[in-house]
From TrEMBL:
This is Exopolyphosphatase. Pfam families: Ppx-GppA (PF02541). SUPFAM superfamilies: Actin-like ATPase domain. Transmembrane segments: none annotated. PANTHER family: EXOPOLYPHOSPHATASE. The lineage of its organism: unclassified sequences, metagenomes, ecological metagenomes. GO terms for biological process: polyphosphate catabolic process. Keywords: Hydrolase. GO terms for molecular function: exopolyphosphatase activity. Residues 12-285 form the Ppx/GppA phosphatase N-terminal domain. InterPro entries: ATPase_NBD (IPR043129), GppA/Ppx_hydrolase (IPR050273), Ppx_GppA_N (IPR003695).
Length: 285
């Protein structure tokens, strides 16, 4: 499976053995494709070059895979890009396998399928949140069955580029970012509140980094709480610039997009009334 995400590209090779999937190989590279979408909707040369170089490395690892055994999907950045066929032709040649661009709802469905298989078989409803580079997926489901699927066009790369340009962070910028997230979430609030859930889980590298940063602030917690995410948001603002973010969990390559991810998750907690969130390993791939 290959996931051409808006922030990172992922490759996972697995074998089905004795009723379960066994991971054979995996690779992840931060490409930040969404950051390379220009005003005319095309990818700039630097972003396209990063993406093709990454796919060539993936292709080398997948060279022995038979046709039809690899599923590669493109998500938000590829959905919104214009005149993407020349790029896709190069991408397919680099990877050596077909690439399909999936809808936001299909992305949400695949994320839920990936996460649900890693969670205990419980009878109650779950809210799953996945923050990507160009979009955020929210799913309510029970067991292996999704009930509500939504994809919102706010992602850590897009929000960080728009509201924390050049790495600058302030209370005013954070407030503006959160207002933008709130506006995008507004259409789904009534449905999600009416459905309700008993357990909330978050997937993606952004959520994982946020969870680990919160643990650095409070080592006694092993979940993301409403108070924890607000405390982290305040710490991010206090840093003043992405280069001043001092969390072990926030790598140098993640710093430029971290404030956007924090703004998104903090606002999800606030408007949906989430009390706490477990961080899980499952994802689209």
């Amino acid at each position: 499976a290959v996931d051409l995400g808006s922030n990172s590209f992922h490759m996972v090779v697995a074998r089905y053995s004795h009723g379960q999937l066994v991971i054979i190989d995996r690779l992840r590279e931060m490409v930040r494709l969404a950051a390379g979408v220009e005003a005319n909707g095309e990818f700039d040369r630097a972003a396209a070059a990063r993406a093709i170089a990454c796919l060539e490395r993936f292709g080398q690892r997948l060279r022995a895979m038979r046709a039809g055994t690899v599923r590669a999907v493109g998500t938000s950045a590829l959905r919104v890009a214009h005149r993407k066929e020349p790029f896709l032709a190069r991408a397919r040649a680099a990877l050596g396998h077909p690439i399909e661009i999936i809808s936001g709802r299909e992305e949400a469905r695949l994320i839920y399928a990936g996460v649900a298989t890693t969670l205990p078989r419980e009878p109650h409803r779950r809210l799953i949140v996945d923050i990507g580079g160009g979009s955020t997926e929210l799913i309510i489901g029970r067991g292996l069955i999704p009930i509500e699927l939504e994809s919102v066009r706010v992602g850590c790369v897009v929000i960080s580029e728009r509201y924390f340009g050049e790495g600058k962070i302030s209370a005013k910028r954070m407030a503006a970012a959160r207002v933008a997230v709130r506006q995008q979430l507004a259409p789904l609030l009534d449905t999600f509140r009416r459905r309700g859930w008993q357990v909330c889980a978050g997937s993606s590298g952004t959520v994982r980094a946020i969870g680990e940063a919160i643990r650095e602030l409070n080592p006694r917690t092993n979940v993301i709480t409403a108070s924890g995410i607000e405390r982290l948001a305040n710490q991010v603002v206090a840093a003043g610039h992405t280069r001043e973010l001092r969390f072990w969990a926030v790598t140098e390559e993640r710093r430029p997009v971290f404030p956007g991810g924090v703004a998104i998750l903090a606002e999800i907690f606030k408007v949906l009334g989430v009390k706490e969130m477990r961080v899980v390993d499952g994802a689209l791939r």
